[in-house]
Write a structure and sequence with these properties.
Blueprint: H1 2-19, H2 47-51
Amino acid sequence: MAKSIKPHLALSLGLALAACGAQAPLQPLASNERPVAPYGEVDKPDAEQLLELPTLAAPERSVELRRRSEERADDPFDLPPD
């Protein structure tokens, strides 16, 4: 009987922990200040601006599907091992 209680206890504990997440916007703690303003800017960034990824961190994918076989161009860096 004890074996069947452990999975249910673990599942209910996991669900309880997942349900206690905050739903409010992010705010800095009272003891912490926001980071300094970037050079040349007057305003400090808010939480939403700090969470945005720069374009270089998450670039857009440009995948062009091949519709037919094509010969590969010669790669000068594709050298045999020494």
